[in-house]
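User: My notes are a mess, but here's the protein and pyridoxal-5'-phosphate's SMILES. Can you give me a structure?
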Amino acid sequence: MSNTNFDISEGIFGQIGNTPLVRLSHLSEKHQVFGKLEHLNPGGSIKDRTAKGILRDAIQRGKITHNTTVVESTSGNMGIGLAVSCQAIGLPFLAIVDPFVNRENIRIMELYGAKVIEVTEKDEFGSYLNTRIATVKQFLAQDPNAFWTEQYSNPANPKTHHSTMEEVVTQLGRWPDYLFIATSTCGTLTGMSEFVKQNFGSTKVIAVDAKGSLIFSDCPSTRRIPGFGAARKSQFLKPDSADEVILIEEKDSIRGAYTLLKKEAILAGGSTGAVVSAYASMADNIPTNSDVVLMINDRGERYMESIYSQKWIAEYYGEEFLHELNKTKL
Ligand SMILES: Cc1ncc(COP(=O)(O)O)c(C=O)c1O
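Assistant: No problem, the inputs look usable. Here's the predicted complex:
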């Protein structure tokens, strides 16, 4: 069957991207702050765009046909994004996960038709990363029609986010002065930043990472908030991808998420909380009347067992912190 037989612009697949850019007027009186509402994508996160971009690229290059099984090592938003897109265009999807996976995410992927395989053996470093990759490779060796999306190294990942930035500029009608982006593969950051540089835009791009992540630092520590940060360097980053990097402590990511919820009625995930806190930490140094765009990367509903669980917060960060969060108001 020819590639053109895939419906990549219609149905729910066609609804990925073109998310609203809305004014968040309660976050600042000094700046015009806007949120790019990526949590409104059909699968609930910015990774819907990454999944769609990688699949579209592979279809155009003839790497995906109607006999293909898509495979990826993922337990989070990318897995859900791929499950949604694969279901929409009628391709089987195999997700390789590990025991740390959020059970709800598995259920969501399965509901969208994915097959989920959980690895149980740790690798030589005591993590599951290499076991997951080895399982993907085993599957690729067995099935010549399998296609690995390789979100950490596939150039279609950052490329997809040129259009994410183009949307922001079109919606705002000008280059924002500042753009805050949470990082993991750094596909979003690199792609949006490339679009700025290639078009001589004036936007300062601020990378927001989790403290303890190894993307921008070499000091690993326990990270409990899923969705952003990484235990490895990014292959996409270039020296000029970020104008500034801000590392955010877990408590501040949580504070940021509650601030956004109480002030703007947006229930978002932990990486968005980090972005809100990163903006707050820089706000004094941002000139008055600047346009600031915050990437709202995913929905908060998937964090009911973590940042929105009173029990979880009290257990890991203490009763006093829980009390502080409960008092956060407009
Ligand atoms: C909620 C959330 N924020 C931020 C990111 C980072 O995006 P990227 O992988 O493009 O760096 C991810 C990636 O999975 C995510 O799920």
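The pocket of pyridoxal-5'-phosphate is lined by residues 45, 47, 76-78, 182-189, 227-228, 269, 271, 297-298 (CB under 6 Å).
User: Great, I'll file this with my notes.
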